[in-house]
Amino acid sequence: MTYVVGENCIRCKLTDCVEVCPVDCFYEGPNFLVIDPDECIDCDLCVPECPVDAIYAEDDLPTDQAEFLELNAELAEIWPNISEQKDPLPDFEKWDGVAGKREFLER
Amino acid sequence: MTTKEKYQPTPKAQAFLDSVENGKYKRQIITGIKKFLDGKVEGGIESLYSESELQALKALKGTPQDVEARMPVKITRHYYELAKNSLPLQTLVKASPKETGNLEGSADPGKQMDYSPVEGLIHKYELGLIYVALTCSAHCRFCYREELIAKKDVERPDGTIAPKGLAQIGELTDYIRQHNEQVAQNGGRHPDTGREKLREILMSGGDPMVLGNKNIAAWWSALADAGIESIRIGTKELAFYPDRFDATFFDMLDKFHAAYPKISIRFMVHFNHPDEFLKRDEEGRYIEDPRGGLEWIESTSKAMRQLGSREWVTMDNQAPIIKGINDDSDALRIMQRELRRNRVENHYFFCGRDIIGYKAFNVPIERVWHILNESQKGLSGIEAHARLSITHYKGKTEVAAVSNQPLAGIPGTENGFVVLKLLRGAEDAPDRGKITIVGRNPDAIWFDGYNDRVIYDEAGLFADVGEEAPGAEIQTATGGT
pLDDT, tens digit, for every residue of A46-104? Predict the structure, then answer.
């Protein structure tokens, strides 16, 4: 591991990352995406692709988002795989950059 | 990378793609020295670097000698298990300050970027090489695609920046169709280059085997539908993570063959050293298999048996000979013998290219020839097919012979001579088969080491020496002789 989807994905869920992932290691929840740490091959393609800059290399993950490392691993085990781009959540523009979205994460 | 218009598979391809499943893999990759420094590496892999080695690498961070700016560190659990008791394999994956002690070299040694008509495609020879992945499961320190893997820009001689992104299926298959149409309309030869139709594509990167089955299947079916007859996959995954060749992969492979029975799949495998595939006892010796040959690591052997049992699949090995890894005749002899016995043709060994930092990796050309020649003594004829190649910008060049004898009466050959032979050439290979003879220089690690002792140059390998042309540029890049 690898890469981690961070807080800013919540309630946005743009899926540009999914389209470029060469190993299809994204998993989809109701309002958030995660990366399976075992499957990620550290290719870095998804980072520049995310329109809301929500993806980090593990080493670059901001300390206040440290919990997302574990969260990605945990939810990737439960959620279904997503490999094709779809429409973002309707209010993604409104939620981009909003602080404290962690509490809105739906499982 | 921008989102391009999505390629629409043919109905036949779509039916095949709908039947493909992706596998689940646990490569357990460790990326970056930082992880080792932070004590976040466990399960034994942390022992790969000593504390003093880590501190030496840390001290270079942010300086021009930063080894990870040259090539990020990356290793799989499988390769660690192989490397933990093998110095050659450790040399292959472990970063060392030596790599950046001398940063001379070329960002694009084969001048490949002069032959890139669309992003992610190099069409230099008769076949096309495409970049389909930006990474491998682990990183060889000597990688000559470091500019791609480490994501650097490559500047062409004319000052433009070469597109070094990944190939896109739609754009690439458009190019193939267009090229082959022009060839057909011109009586079988391309009007500009004289090439025949594009029949073969080499998928490279990076390693195509890091891609999921669905991705690989999408490439194969699109290439086949565009008229490609043979698809090569350049991969080191049999060494880095052989479990990638799992049931889901072979299921995809067989379904592809059922849908496209006339397409041959050619695996260009990359083993540098027998420690990458042979079992060893507690003293580190290879183990005789009472049934014949030596004992193989089970996961590697299983993958190769399954690849080898399909008659439309071939396997060829090619590898550079690198200082401290496989500049060892005995290791190379065992490797060539065991690979051939297990359905792998020994295709090429290479002299290291003049990449950035190449002086840390390259063995002198004449020494490499000697090592390979010694390794082939005692091999049967069919085990000793591999030729030694050094990649001139004109094309792959065989180091055919090194003689210690002077050529009677010819100055410059007092200490012997070297015979080079052009094996391939750009476009329609006009100079294939031509030779060049140079006086010996036991220290030469690149062509420029012979600039002052060219005896005979039918192949034109030194035609540009002294001019402001590509040859002169190699001289500059390597500091001249």
Answer: 998 899 999 999 888 999 999 999 999 999 999 999 988 999 999 999 999 999 999 99
Q: Please give the average per-residue pLDDT across B448-469, as a whole number.
A: 87
- CB–CB of A19 and B29 under 8 A? no
Do the Cβ atoms of B3 and A16 come within 8 Å? yes
ipTM score assigned to the predicted complex: 0.78
Residue B159 predicted with pLDDT over 80: no
Alpha-carbon distance of B353 to A11, in angstroms, equals 49
Which of B359, B366, B279, B374 is closest to B328 using CA atoms? B374
| CATH code for the domain in which residue A16 is found | 3.30.70.20
Average pLDDT, chain B: 91
d(CA B345, CA B340): 6
- DSSP per-residue string spanning B303-323: HHHHHHTSTTEEEEEEEEEBT
pLDDT digits (tens, 9 = 90+) for B12-70: 999 999 999 988 888 989 989 998 999 989 999 999 999 999 999 999 999 999 999 88
Q: Which residues of B touch A38 (CB under 8 A)?
A: 24-28
Q: Is A83 on the interface with B (CB under 8 A)?
A: yes
Note the pTM of the prediction, 2 decimals. Answer: 0.90
Residue B170 lies in a domain: no
Distance of residue A81 Cα from the nearest chain B Cα, in angstroms: 11
List, in order, residues 6 or more apart from B181 with CB less than 8 Å away.
none
Contact B210 A43 (CB under 8 A): yes
How many angstroms away from the CA of B296 is the closest CA of chain A?
Answer: 26
Identify all chain B residues contacting A20, using CB atoms and an 8 Å cutoff. Answer: 1
CA distance, residue A58 to nearest chain B CA (Å): 10
Interface test with B, best of A23, A69, A87 (most B CBs within 10 A): A23
Q: Do B151 and A44 touch (CB under 8 A)?
A: yes
Residue A95 lies in a domain: no
Number of domains forming the structure of chain A: 1
Is A102 part of any domain?
no
* Contact of B238 with B273, CB cutoff 8 Å: no
Residue contact B135–A44, C-beta within 8 A: yes
Is A88 within a domain? no
Task: Report angle CA B401, B404, B407 to the nearest 5 degrees.
Answer: 85
| Cβ-based neighbours of B261, under 8 Å, separated by 6 or more | B312
**Chain B interface includes A59 (CB < 8 A):** yes
Answer yes or no: is A93 within a domain.
no
Range of the domain at A8: 3-82
Q: Is residue B52 part of a domain?
A: yes
**A49 inside 8 A of chain B by CB:** yes
Q: Is A69 on the interface with B (CB under 8 A)?
A: no
Confidence check: pLDDT of B150 > 80 = no
Residue B154: what pLDDT? 66
The domain of B83 spans 32-100
pLDDT digits (tens, 9 = 90+) for A63-74: 999 999 999 999
What distance lies between CA A49 and its chain's CA centroid? Answer: 12
Asked whether the predicted pLDDT for residue B469 surpasses 60, the reply is no
Q: Closest Cα of chain B to A71: distance in Å?
A: 18
Q: Closest approach of chain B CAs to the CA of A28, in angstroms?
A: 17
- What are the start-end ranges of the E strands in B295-422? 313-321, 344-351, 387-392, 395-403, 417-422
